[in-house]
Design brief:
The radius of gyration is 12 Å and the shape is globular. It has a two-stranded antiparallel sheet with strand order 1-2. The protein is an alpha+beta fold. It is built from three helices and two strands; from the N terminus they run ββααα. Strand 1 and strand 2 form a beta hairpin. The mean pLDDT is about 95. The protein has one domain (about 5-80). The protein has helices at about 30-35, 45-60, 65-80, and strands at about 10-15, 25.
Amino acid sequence: MDPTLSSRPLEYPLYLKPGFSREVLHTVGEAAMFIKELPAKYDGVLHWSLAGATVEDAARRSDSADALRVATMAMELALETEGMLRSGEVK
């Protein structure tokens, strides 16, 4: 399955700082599309590689709550590491 097509909700929404193509990532597909649209300078960066791999896994294993939890947390960590995550939002 193409992870960008997944409508599976993330464990919790991830709120982005202003300036991105979307304000909130709600689904596995939105997270996958966000990673896919990152500039080339992010290719091979460890936290984005981890987030991408776990998002793909969550899309592929749609019955696994653990895979979804790990993907959401990895995506949150990558966004936070890059200073892209809006702080102060309630999960």
